[in-house]
From TrEMBL:
Reported function: Probably part of an ABC transporter complex. Responsible for energy coupling to the transport system. Part of an ABC transporter complex. Responsible for energy coupling to the transport system.
Tagged with keyword Lipid metabolism: no
ABC transporter domain: residues covered: 4-238
Annotated protein name in UniProt: ABC transporter ATP-binding protein
Major location category of this protein: membrane
Coiled-coil annotated residue ranges, if any: none
Entry keyword set: ATP-binding, Cell membrane, Membrane, Nucleotide-binding, Translocase, Transport
Organism of origin: Methanoculleus frigidifontis
């Protein structure tokens, strides 16, 4: 039984605009999954089906083997937390503390449990100092962390991040990557994120889905996807800089192993240098 599964999922917006077409997607427990594609590929629309914000035109969405229905939608939203691309779409309370508490309170939890979850989420995101701040006076990166904390306070099994690095500076991106990578290992949480910035993908994903015009056109590991130059060109994506550089060195006769993350590339280049000495 998969944690999330879509079967031939299709969705048509008003005006007969097909946003998704026969999408088959699977997410397992404690996995890191990237959904990549150019703007308008259908990533956000797909994500809104995972916790019932949108209802399929045809096909179905299964969470732990159960179809999403009106009767179980409350339980589904406990399990699958969605962080929107723009945190201003998600943050609305007078203070950060109240905003993070909103979700747990709506689960009907007692005050002590809510307070504990708020404290834990603030600590996990490193934003304890923002507790009493007005959310809309925060920076973009701070707002993003508050939005994530609000979702995590509901203790979901799945964290879905729609373009999580949008509006973040390089330090904010690095901090987000480090944080997200702890979730599957430390908490057993599945992380699903969308992006059209391919440089992020090898650092934060184990498997990749490629979307184009509402369809999933490829699925595989990072290594399997980023050797498909024709596919990436057709979907208006590119190969990340690190494997592109190493491939160029190999073409020039340098005996270096392929790598996709910064750490793996550093080790590969060090080994190649030692062999040449």
């Amino acid at each position: 039984m998969h944690l999330i599964e879509t079967r031939n999922l299709s969705y048509v917006y008003r005006g007969s605009v097909a946003a998704l077409s026969n999408v088959n997607f699977i997410a397992e427990r404690a996995s890191r999954i990237a959904v990549i594609g150019a703007n308008g590929a259908g990533k956000s629309t797909l994500f809104k089906h995972f916790n019932g914000i949108l209802k399929p035109t045809s096909g179905e969405v299964l969470i732990r083997g159960e179809a999403v229905t009106r009767e179980n939608i409350r339980e589904i939203r406990k399990s699958v937390g969605l962080v929107f691309q723009n945190p201003d779409d998600q943050i609305f309370s007078p203070t950060v503390e109240q905003d993070i508490a909103f979700g747990p309170m709506n689960l009907g939890l007692d005050e002590e449990t809510v307070a504990h979850r708020v404290d834990a989420a603030l600590s996990l995101l490193g934003i304890e100092h923002l507790r009493e701040r007005v959310p809309h006076h925060l920076s973009g990166g701070e707002k993003k962390r508050v939005a994530i904390a609000g979702v995590l306070a509901m203790e979901p099994q799945v964290l879905v991040l729609d373009e999580p690095t949008a509006g973040l500076d390089p330090q904010g991106v690095a901090s987000l990557v480090e944080f997200v990578n702890t979730l599957p290992q430390k908490y057993g949480m599945t992380v699903i994120f969308s992006t059209h910035h391919v440089e992020l993908v090898p650092e934060i994903a184990d498997s990749v889905y490629v979307m184009d015009q509402g369809e999933i056109v490829a699925q595989g590991s990072v290594a399997e996807i980023f050797v498909k130059d024709d596919l990436l060109a057709r979907t208006r994506l590119d190969v990340p800089v690190i494997p592109k550089l190493l491939r160029s060195l190999r073409d020039d006769g340098v005996d270096v192993e392929m790598a996709y993350t910064f750490g793996d590339a550093r080790r590969a280049l060090t080994d190649a240098y030692e062999r040449r000495r």
